[in-house]
Recover the amino acids of this structure.
């Protein structure tokens, strides 16, 4: 027959509550391993401005601070997109099918132009980071495309 040792049994009652506290504190860490890992937020979609029929489409847009804008040349001739000033940008030469991107880190109004075709003009208004991107369509190009 097995007999209980009274000196040992008092230690069991002291140790058991410590194990309960340890299990309660450690439990969520082990339980989280069974959960699927959190996925990072998808990257923001860039705002695309097309260079088409010798025009920027759209030619006017409002975007939040932090937005990346991509200028994509859909024409068969070279274009540029450039704005001067402190936070300006310059795409340099963009042959047909090429693109250029710029991330706007400061609020402001940016007037940009194609260096090769000075009638190709556009305006970006960069504002509050919580605002959604909006575009104002340009006037339709002339039937000749020029």
């Amino acid at each position: 027959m097995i007999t209980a040792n009274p000196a040992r049994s008092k230690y069991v009652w002291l140790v058991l509550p410590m194990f309960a506290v340890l299990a309660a504190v450690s439990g969520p860490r082990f339980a989280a391993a069974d959960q699927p890992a959190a996925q990072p937020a998808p990257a923001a979609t860039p705002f695309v401005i097309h260079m088409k029929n010798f025009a920027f489409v759209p030619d006017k847009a409002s975007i939040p601070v932090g937005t990346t804008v991509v200028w994509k040349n859909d024409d068969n001739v070279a274009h540029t997109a450039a704005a001067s000033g402190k936070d300006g940008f310059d795409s340099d030469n963009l042959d047909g099918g090429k693109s250029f991107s710029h991330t706007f880190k400061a609020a402001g109004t940016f007037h940009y132009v194609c260096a090769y075709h000075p009638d190709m003009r556009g305006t970006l208004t960069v504002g509050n980071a919580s605002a959604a991107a909006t575009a104002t369509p340009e006037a339709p190009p002339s039937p000749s495309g020029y």
Remarks:
- The first strand starts at residue 47 and ends at 51.
- The helical segments are 6-32.
